[in-house]
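Hello,

Our lab assistant flagged a job as stuck in the queue for most of the afternoon. It eventually completed. Since we weren't sure the result was trustworthy after the delay, we are filing this so someone can double-check. Below is the sequence as submitted and the structure that was eventually returned. Let us know if re-running is recommended.
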Amino acid sequence: MTTTYSPADPAYLDEPDFRVELERVFDLCHGCRLCFNLCPSFPTLFDFVDAHDGDVSAMTPAEQDQVVDECYQCKLCYPKCPYVPPHEWQLDFPRLMMRAHAIRHDEGLPILDRVTDQVLGRTDLLGRVSTAAAPLVNAITGTPGSLTRKLMERTAGMASERLLPPYARTRFSTWFRRRAAARGPRSFVTGTPQGDVSVFPTCFVEYMEPAIGQDLVKVYERNGVSCSMPEGTVCCGAPWLHQGNIKAFTKAAKTNVTALAKEVRAGRDVVVAQPTCAYVVKKDYPIYLAGTELAADAALVAEHAFDPAEYLIALHKAEGTTLDPVFPGRESGAVPDQVTYHVACHLQAQHIGLKSRDLLKVAGVKATLVQRCSGIDGTWGYRAENYELARKVAKPMAKEIKAAGNDIVCGDCHLANGAIEQETGTRPLHPMQLMARAYGIPEEQT
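-- returned structure --
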């Protein structure tokens, strides 16, 4: 048995070794049960073990695999589990599940699974094509349950009933460069300079929701933070990682670390626009690039990477800097006194606290918290085989959002926001969009 979560370990892809380690971890989880309500994996695990009179070793490989399949990498084990490294028991459930997927990928996947992985993993290629033909693509794919979507499910494995995020006509990077050309280089700071950041938009903001990035830039500039964009970045690679495709993920990690390290060495912090991508940059890149020529750069980038609200709250609390306290949009009533705020799983897993809630508080907005998983988590909830279970996972979240009774719902995760819209009929805003409206900054006209 090898207790390893490092893909560089010689035993990492050894399935018999993995099965023994899986049994060790399952035994510890069964004896603890703190995670019984986090995701379907744990109730399934406990039911199987209980059916075997508490004998974890009696679980069949098929039963073990079902537990693996029902883990969607929300990573809420990290704030919940008392045995995560550096504890002597070295229990890292999410990374053990990723090891399982890496072994499956190494051994070879069925054709439909390979096709689905390619469709979900090649976000940049799909994004470039889809934004170029956004009206047509959105018309074809935008109606859940349509004939086209049913065909997509049969051929690409994506759930036909899942609400898909529409593509934008203008990419965020296009907007940013046009704006920079019109205003002149490095002329973005208003008021007293307080910081300098490089905005890593991620594929969600780049291709689907550039309005989030636009408002992020304007709110930062409002507070004296100069914004630039890194050159040569790609999708963070999370879809590849969660599929077990270590080679493709490592390639993306190397590309991004190389580009982002240049920004850090130029004196800029890195602001990552989405929680999953921020988690990958902060936590996964240093692990998967350990022992490579980019190990030091990965650690450097992780040290200087921030969630958008995390950076602004740090600015607000630091000596000698602060946020602009004037919020004309609040005074006019454009932004209400209270909103519902969905806490993204991958933000909780970063252990940074509830920075978007704190940021809204600066603007005088009280946030009713909903800390329930959306059931999307990367690309898991988009797969046809997971759709019904994902909807079941999302029900408590939808119930709490409806019970809160606020007109506006906001959340940091674009994927989770899509699930919220599907489950409640309300389209959430990103906290940066709320902050922009609170500052009286109008939404960009497209």
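-- support follow-up --
The delay was a queue issue, not a problem with the job. The result is valid. The longest helix spans residues 246-265. Strands lie at 195-200, 225-228, 269-272, 305-306, 338-342, 366-370, 409-411.
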